[in-house]
Amino acid sequence: MDLDKALKGRRSIRSYLDKRVPEELIRQIIEAATFAPSAKNAQQWRFTVLTGNAKKELTDLFRRELELVCERIGRENMGSSFASCGIMEEAPVVIMVWNAGKMGWETEIHSVAAAIQNMLLKAYDLGLGTLWIGDILYALKALKQHFGKPWKLTAAVAVGWPARIPEPRPRKSVDEVTEFLS
Ligand SMILES: Cc1cc2nc3c(=O)[nH]c(=O)nc-3n(C[C@H](O)[C@H](O)[C@H](O)COP(=O)(O)O)c2cc1C
Description:
Elements: H1 3-9, H2 23-33, E1 45-50, H3 52-73, H4 81-90, E2 93-99, H5 106-125, E3 129-133, H6 140-147, E4 152-160, H7 174-177
Antiparallel strand pairs: 1-2, 2-4, 3-4
Helix pairs in contact: 2-5, 3-4
The protein binds flavin mononucleotide.
């Protein structure tokens, strides 16, 4: 796919068809992630691919935790977290993305984020939809405990065949976000 088409055509997909995604396609998406740049080429990204019961266990836990947080802080402070949980329930695949960096450098998270962007673009190239989900941070401790990994949980990425492709979100122009100094 033409790079500009991929960069400008990709959307966050929040509605998925009830249709299986072959593991081979997920492997291609993760392979794309592994080609991202990383600080000191440390490649500290790690992935846990969830489908079926493993995904259900995770989303059930996430929903229970959100309800607990909601009791504490009030529904008006829950942002898009319940909606994100619903999207994870609907998507046939959820990929948990970990940061296994041990140095605690800020650049470690940058590297993992670069890998996630590669995943989204590769998935789009394959005709798949994705959603980058930061709302898992509402239940970070419980989700991390559930997996028992020594790594930092960074994001979840929902993957599936899009049921609805939204209009593009507005973008700031180059001039709005850039200063040229000489
Ligand atoms: C770090 C990060 C976290 C995000 N977390 C969520 C989320 O939890 N739930 C959600 O619906 N969208 C989430 N998004 C998607 C953004 O809302 C979306 O990328 C943005 O609105 C622009 O839309 P587009 O991706 O269709 O261009 C996240 C995006 C990023 C980069």
